[in-house]
Amino acid sequence: MTTEKWFAYRGFQQLLMISNELNRAQNALENEDIAHAICAWERAFELTDLTVEDKKNERLLTELLRFREMLGETFITHDKEMNRSLMKELIRLDPEAYRLMC
């Protein structure tokens, strides 16, 4: 994903795409496929880092960095419940993303 392409997405779209990677990780965990979960988390890290760099998300910087920290913990522990919780909390960061998912 190029920076230019990622920055063209609206903030809520970026959050939904990160959440989609967490959903892929969750499905992999449910199927006890750690390798695929790790790939999905790595992609979530990549997209989160791009989102942090995007100036339009500056108001969410603290929350995004905290999310990234918790994603790291989930990556290390492979905790299904934490992964599920991260998906929910990420969506709650933006009213439009929340509206679309709930």
Task: Explain how this protein is built.
It is built from 6 helices and no strands. The longest helix is centred in the first third of the chain and has 20 residues, at 11-30. The protein has one domain. The mean pLDDT is 96. Helix 2 packs antiparallel against helix 5. Helix content is 80%, strand content 0%.
Question: Topology of this structure?
Answer:
Blueprint (H helix, E strand, L loop, with lengths): L2 H6 L2 H20 L3 H20 L7 H17 L2 H12 L3 H7 L1
Helix pairs in contact: 2-3, 2-5, 3-4, 4-5
Largest sheet features: none
CA radius of gyration: 13 Å
Overall 3D form: globular
Q: What number of structural domains do the residues give? A: 1
Average pLDDT score: 96
Which spans have pLDDT < 50 for at least 5 consecutive residues? none
Content-based structural category: mainly alpha
Notable characteristics:
mainly alpha; 0% strand; 102 residues; 6 helices; 80% helix
Task: Give a quick rundown of the structure.
The protein is built from 6 helices and no strands.
